[in-house]
């Protein structure tokens, strides 16, 4: 509706509680107001809290955020070959140590 209302003075007296009004602050509350089905006396009270109208031409259009482009940064300085080699050699070394310990303790 492009109309602005200041209902600060009505917070304590609102039958639905102040939370209902506070949840609609800073946004178009037309749907919230209409969905409740207010009485004609409630609609008449709106004139008391009317502040003015919004010039819709001054409302900025929504823009989507696009992060700045950053150069690719490779945190991992180790080459993939070394990693694959270690993935093969470390289990082999553990197996070798286990077999060695088993062989040494069995012969003693």
Automatic annotation (TrEMBL):
<keyword id="KW-1133">Transmembrane helix</keyword>
<dbReference type="Pfam" id="PF00173">
    <property type="entry name" value="Cyt-b5"/>
</dbReference>
<keyword id="KW-0472">Membrane</keyword>
<dbReference type="GO" id="GO:0046872">
    <property type="term" value="F:metal ion binding"/>
</dbReference>
<feature type="transmembrane region" description="Helical">
    <location>
        <begin position="81"/>
        <end position="104"/>
    </location>
</feature>
<dbReference type="GO" id="GO:0005789">
    <property type="term" value="C:endoplasmic reticulum membrane"/>
</dbReference>
<keyword id="KW-0813">Transport</keyword>
<dbReference type="InterPro" id="IPR018506">
    <property type="entry name" value="Cyt_B5_heme-BS"/>
</dbReference>
<keyword id="KW-0812">Transmembrane</keyword>
<dbReference type="InterPro" id="IPR001199">
    <property type="entry name" value="Cyt_B5-like_heme/steroid-bd"/>
</dbReference>
<protein>
    <recommendedName>
        <fullName>Cytochrome b5 heme-binding domain-containing protein</fullName>
    </recommendedName>
</protein>
<dbReference type="InterPro" id="IPR036400">
    <property type="entry name" value="Cyt_B5-like_heme/steroid_sf"/>
</dbReference>
<keyword id="KW-0249">Electron transport</keyword>
<feature type="domain" description="Cytochrome b5 heme-binding">
    <location>
        <begin position="1"/>
        <end position="55"/>
    </location>
</feature>
<keyword id="KW-0479">Metal-binding</keyword>
<keyword id="KW-0256">Endoplasmic reticulum</keyword>
<dbReference type="GO" id="GO:0020037">
    <property type="term" value="F:heme binding"/>
</dbReference>
<dbReference type="InterPro" id="IPR050668">
    <property type="entry name" value="Cytochrome_b5"/>
</dbReference>
<comment type="similarity">
    <text>Belongs to the cytochrome b5 family.</text>
</comment>
<keyword id="KW-0349">Heme</keyword>
<keyword id="KW-0408">Iron</keyword>
């Amino acid at each position: 509706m492009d109309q602005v209302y200041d209902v600060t003075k009505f917070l304590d007296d609102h039958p639905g509680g102040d939370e209902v009004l506070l949840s609609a602050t800073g946004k178009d509350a037309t749907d919230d107001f209409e969905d409740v089905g207010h009485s004609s006396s409630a609609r008449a009270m709106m004139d008391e809290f009317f502040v003015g109208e919004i010039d819709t031409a001054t409302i900025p259009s929504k823009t989507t955020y696009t992060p700045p482009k950053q150069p690719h940064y490779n945190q991992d300085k180790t080459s993939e070959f070394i990693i694959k080699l270690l993935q093969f050699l470390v289990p082999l070394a553990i197996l070798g140590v286990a077999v060695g310990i088993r062989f040494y303790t069995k012969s003693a």
